[in-house]
Write a sequence for this structure.
RNA sequence: GCCGGGAUGGUGGAGUUGGUAUACACGGGAGACUUAAGAUCUUCUUCCCGAAAGGGAUCGUGGGUUCGAGUCCCACUCCCGGCACCA
C-alpha cells in the first residue's frame, strides 16, 4: 500500500497556511531563534534540486526549534536584480520586472509544494521599490560617511556583458558569470571602502561560529600581511623628474606623491633580507616609471609598458611563463649598505598591491631569482638581520598590506538599483534627499548598455536631467546601477520588519531578533556575499543603526548536489533533476527525506533516482505502522483487561529512546543522513517486534515531523491526536529506558578478535573476564596465562599473552 | 606552486575520547504471496578458501607508535575545493 501523497501534501500545506502556523511573533516571551537560508535568484529555469538542500536542512532545524519552544524566524524572499532577467529583456524587449515576477511566482509555488515552514508573511523582493529605497538610503549613508567615493580606476571589464566587475567577481581572470576573460579598462566608478574594515573583518571572525574553512577562506581573501615600507633614494636625482597628477591618479591605492620625488618606496615582508637586494622593480603602472626612464632606455620602456597594459589578467598572471622586464637606466641606493642597484620595470610586480615597487632579493625569492637569472642580474648570499633591526637600519616603517581591494560598486546595466546621486556643476556629487527616495528605475526602450559602455539609463534624458538637491541648479543623475550584491547585503535586516516605511527596520525589533542565529549557504559566497554583508552590517553598526557588529552568529555551508555520474548538473548536459518531478511522483516528504539522507550535508553528493525510491518505501512503511497498533497480539500473561494497543514492547521502547537521543543529537550536529538512518532502524525494530503501542508511535511521529511533516501529520491525525504534530513538544530521550540490559562484549587475544560474549550490562569486571576466558572460541587461543588483561567497559576484553 | 578537505563493499555512505569496520540505504541473489507483473514479506549479500564448522585478508600505497589503528605520527599517490607572480 502506497499513500496518496498528492492529497496529503495539499491537505496539510493548506492547514498550515490557514493556521499561520509558521509566522514568527514579534512580541513573544519565548526565546527567539533566527534561521536564515540564502534567498534565491528567481531564474527562468525554476528551482534546481540544489536549492532545497539548504532549505530542507534548515527547515528541519526550524521545525525542531519550534517544538523545543523557540520563537522561530525562518523567512524567505527573492534576490531578483541581476543579469539573466536583463538579458532576457534585451532578447525579448519585455520588461525584466515582468519576467522576474513570473519566475518568483514559480519559485514560490515550488517552495510551497515542498512544505517548507517559511514565514511567508515577511516575503519581499530586492527589486521592490519599497525595499530598494532602503538599499539606496544605506548607500547614501556610506556616501555621507565618506566611504563611497568615485575614482578613475582600472577596473575588470567583461567585454561580453559590457559591464565592470568587482575583484570578487573575477574567477581566474575570467568573468564569474560568462567565463569571458576580463580586460582592464580605465573607468570612473563608485567605490566603497571595504578595505577600511579589513582588520575588523579578520579579527571579528574570532567572535563568530563559522565553519573553520569559511573563516580561513575569508582570512586568505582579505590577505593581511605585515611588513615594512623602505625608501630607496635615487642615485642621480635629476631635474627632469616631474610627476604629473594624472599619472599619479592612474594607480589605485598609491597615495599621491607630494613634491619632487627622489626615492622609490618598496613594500616588503622580508626587510631582514635587505643585504641581498640586487635590484629594484617597478610595476609598469608605477607613476615613477616615466620619469625614471633615461633617454637611452625610453623607447624600450615605453614599448614594454604599452604591451603590459594590454595584457589581460590571465596573460599577466601566468607565472609559468618566463619573466619579462626592461631596465629603466636609473639606479637607487640600498639604504642598509649604500650599494647602488639598478631599477627595472617588470609586470610580475603588481601596480595595485603594496607600493607597486619591490626590492628584489634573488637569494630568497623564487620570482626574483628567475628574473635575475634571465637578465643576468647578480644573486648574492647575504647575512640576515632581524626584522626590527632591518627596519631601523633602513629608516623604514612597519606597515600592513591587504590583498582585499575596495569594492567596485558601479554597474553599467539597467536591472539594478539606481545609484541615488546627482552630479551638480556647482556642488559636485550630491545625495538625493531622503524624501525623494527611492530613485525608481525609469522605463527604457532598449535594455542594452550603450556601445561606449554606459548604462542604458544614460539615454533617458528625463531621468538624467534633474535639479541639484543642494543648490537647485541643473544637475545630472548618476546612471550607473548597483551590483546585485547590494540588495543581498542587508536583506536579513528587512525580514525583521518588512513592511516598515519609515525605517529599514525598527530599532526595537532589530534588537529583539539580531543577530541571525544560524545562516546556511554555499561556499561560493564566502568571499562575495558573506564578506560584503558582514562589512555592510558593521558599517550600519558603526552608524548606530543595527545592534550587533556581526550579522551572523553561526554560519554553516552545504555541499553541491551532483548529477548521478558525479559531474555538475547543467542544462547543456540535460542532466538537471527538476524538483517538481520528484515532488509530483513521490511527494514532498520523499523529496525532503531523500535530500537529507543522500549523504553528509557539507559534502557534494550525486543524485540517485533509486535512492529516492528507497526513501519512498520507507515513508510507506512509516505510514503502515498505524496498522501495527491495532493488530497487536497480546503477549502471554498479560491480563485481558489491558487494552491491546497499549501493551508496550520493551524492545520497541528501548529502540524508541535510543532513536530520540540519536536524532536530537544529529539534527544539532547537521548529521541529517544518520538521523534518518536512526529513524529507519527504529521503524525496522517495530516491524520485527510486530507491534507498537499508540504512545510510542505518537512519540515517533513527533520526532519524524521535522523531516516528513506531511506524513507525520497524517499519521498523527489517524492516531486521533489533536492539533498539529509540530505543535507538540520535542520528545526527550530517557537514558534509563534506552539502556540495554545485556551487552555483547568483544573478546580479543593479542588484539585479534576471537569471539564475543553476551553478558548482563551491570556485570563486574572479574566475572566478565572469567566469562570471556571460558568462551569456547577464545579458550583455544589462551595457550598460556595472560600477562595483561585490558577491559574497556561495555565494549571489549583483550588478553595479552 | 601554495593552502584546505578527502580516499571505507558492486553503489551512496556509517563508524564515539584509538576498542566487535562495512550501520542505514541502493543494487543483486533465493524464497513466500500472486494467473502474472508490481507492491509487500522472509532471507542472504566486503573479498578469498571451505559443503559446513571454521580460517585468512581488508578501510588509496609504504612505514611507524600501541595490547589494539579507518581513527594518531612520517613519507608517497590520486581526487575535490580555494588562492594563484600579493613581494
Amino acid at each position: 500500500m502506497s499513500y496518496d501523497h498528492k492529497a496529503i501534501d495539499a491537505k496539510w500545506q493548506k492547514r498550515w497556511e490557514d493556521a499561520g502556523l509558521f509566522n514568527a511573533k514579534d512580541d513573544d516571551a519565548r526565546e527567539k531563534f533566527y534561521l536564515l537560508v540564502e534567498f534565491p535568484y528567481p531564474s527562468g529555469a525554476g528551482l534546481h534540486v540544489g536549492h532545497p538542500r539548504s532549505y530542507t536542512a534548515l527547515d528541519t532545524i526550524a521545525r525542531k526549534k519550534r517544538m523545543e519552544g523557540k520563537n522561530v524566524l525562518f523567512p524567505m524572499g527573492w534576490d531578483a536584480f541581476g543579469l539573466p532577467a536583463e538579458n532576457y529583456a534585451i532578447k525579448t524587449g519585455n520588461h525584466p520586472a515582468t519576467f522576474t515576477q513570473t519566475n518568483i511566482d514559480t519559485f514560490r509555488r515550488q517552495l510551497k509544494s515542498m512544505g517548507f515552514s517559511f514565514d511567508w508573511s515577511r516575503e519581499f523582493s530586492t527589486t521592490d521599490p519599497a525595499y530598494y529605497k532602503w538599499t539606496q538610503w544605506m548607500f547614501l549613508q556610506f556616501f555621507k560617511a565618506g566611504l563611497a567615493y568615485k575614482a578613475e580606476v582600472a577596473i575588470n571589464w567583461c567585454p561580453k556583458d559590457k559591464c565592470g566587475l568587482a575583484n570578487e567577481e573575477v574567477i581566474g581572470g575570467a568573468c564569474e558569470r560568462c567565463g569571458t576573460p576580463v580586460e582592464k579598462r580605465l573607468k570612473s566608478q563608485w567605490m566603497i571602502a571595504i578595505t577600511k574594515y579589513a582588520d575588523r573583518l579578520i579579527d571579528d571572525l574570532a567572535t563568530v561560529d563559522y565553519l573553520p574553512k569559511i573563516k580561513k577562506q575569508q582570512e586568505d581573501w582579505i590577505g593581511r600581511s605585515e611588513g615594512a615600507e623602505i625608501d630607496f633614494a635615487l642615485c642621480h636625482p635629476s631635474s627632469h623628474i616631474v610627476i604629473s597628477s594624472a599619472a599619479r591618479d592612474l594607480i589605485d591605492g598609491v597615495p599621491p606623491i607630494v613634491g619632487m620625488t627622489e626615492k622609490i618606496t618598496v613594500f616588503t615582508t622580508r626587510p631582514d633580507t635587505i643585504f641581498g637586494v640586487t635590484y629594484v622593480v617597478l610595476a609598469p603602472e608605477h607613476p615613477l616609471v616615466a620619469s625614471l626612464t633615461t633617454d637611452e632606455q625610453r623607447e624600450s620602456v615605453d614599448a614594454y609598458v604599452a604591451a603590459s597594459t594590454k595584457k589581460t589578467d590571465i596573460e599577466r598572471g601566468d607565472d609559468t611563463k618566463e619573466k619579462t622586464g626592461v631596465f629603466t637606466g636609473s639606479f637607487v641606493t640600498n639604504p642598509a649598505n649604500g650599494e647602488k642597484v639598478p631599477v627595472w620595470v617588470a609586470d610580475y610586480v603588481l601596480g595595485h598591491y603594496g607600493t607597486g615597487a619591490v626590492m628584489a632579493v634573488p637569494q630568497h625569492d623564487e620570482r626574483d631569482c628567475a628574473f635575475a637569472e634571465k637578465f643576468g642580474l647578480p644573486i648574492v648570499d647575504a647575512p640576515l638581520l632581524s626584522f626590527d633591526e632591518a627596519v631601523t637600519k633602513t629608516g623604514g616603517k612597519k606597515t600592513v598590506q591587504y590583498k582585499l581591494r575596495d569594492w567596485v560598486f558601479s554597474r553599467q546595466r539597467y536591472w539594478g538599483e539606481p545609484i541615488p546621486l546627482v552630479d551638480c556643476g556647482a556642488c559636485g556629487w550630491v545625495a538625493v534627499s531622503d524624501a525623494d527616495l527611492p530613485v525608481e528605475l525609469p522605463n527604457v526602450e532598449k535594455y542594452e548598455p550603450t556601445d561606449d559602455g554606459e548604462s542604458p539609463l544614460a539615454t533617458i534624458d528625463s531621468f538624467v536631467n534633474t535639479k541639484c538637491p543642494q543648490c537647485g541648479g541643473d544637475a545630472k543623475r548618476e546612471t550607473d546601477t548597483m551590483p546585485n550584491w547590494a540588495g543581498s547585503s542587508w536583506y536579513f535586516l528587512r525580514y525583521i520588519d518588512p513592511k516598515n516605511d519609515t525605517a529599514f527596520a525598527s530599532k526595537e525589533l532589530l534588537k529583539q531578533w539580531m543577530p541571525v542565529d544560524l545562516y546556511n549557504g554555499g561556499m561560493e559566497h564566502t568571499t562575495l556575499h558573506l564578506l560584503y554583508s558582514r562589512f555592510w552590517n558593521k558599517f550600519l553598526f558603526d552608524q548606530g543603526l543595527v545592534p550587533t557588529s556581526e550579522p551572523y552568529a553561526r554560519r554553516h555551508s552545504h555541499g553541491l548536489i551532483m548529477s548521478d555520474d558525479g559531474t555538475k548538473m547543467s542544462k547543456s548536459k540535460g542532466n538537471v533533476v527538476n524538483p517538481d518531478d520528484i515532488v509530483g511522483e513521490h511527494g514532498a516528504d520523499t523529496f525532503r527525506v531523500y535530500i537529507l539522507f543522500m549523504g553528509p550535508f557539507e559534502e557534494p553528493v550525486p543524485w540517485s533516482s533509486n535512492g529516492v525510491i528507497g526513501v519512498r518505501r520507507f515513508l510507506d512503511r512509516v505510514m503502515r505502522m498505524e496498522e501495527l497498533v491495532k493488530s497487536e497480539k497480546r503477549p502471554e500473561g498479560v491480563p485481558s483487561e489491558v487494552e491491546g494497543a497499549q501493551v508496550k514492547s520493551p524492545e520497541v521502547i528501548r529502540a524508541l529512546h535510543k532513536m530520540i537521543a540519536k536524532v536530537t543529537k544529529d539534527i544539532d550536529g547537521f548529521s541529517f543522513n544518520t538521523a534518518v538512518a536512526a529513524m529507519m532502524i527504529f521503524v525496522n525494530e517495530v516491524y520485527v517486534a510486530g507491534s507498537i503501542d499508540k504512545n510510542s508511535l505518537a512519540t515517533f511521529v513527533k520526532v519524524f515531523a521535522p523531516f516528513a511533516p506531511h506524513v507525520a501529520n497524517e499519521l498523527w491525525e489517524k492516531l486521533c491526536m489533536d492539533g498539529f504534530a509540530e505543535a507538540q513538544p520535542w520528545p526527550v530521550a530517557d537514558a534509563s529506558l534506552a539502556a540495554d540490559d545485556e551487552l555483547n562484549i568483544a573478546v580479543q587475544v593479542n588484539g585479534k578478535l576471537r569471539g564475543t560474549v553476551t553478558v548482563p550490562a551491570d556485570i563486574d569486571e572479574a566475572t566478565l573476564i572469567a566469562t570471556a576466558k571460558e568462551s569456547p572460541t577464545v579458550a583455544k587461543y589462551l595457550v598460556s596465562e595472560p600477562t595483561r588483561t585490558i577491559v574497556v567497559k561495555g565494549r571489549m576484553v583483550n588478553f595479552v599473552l
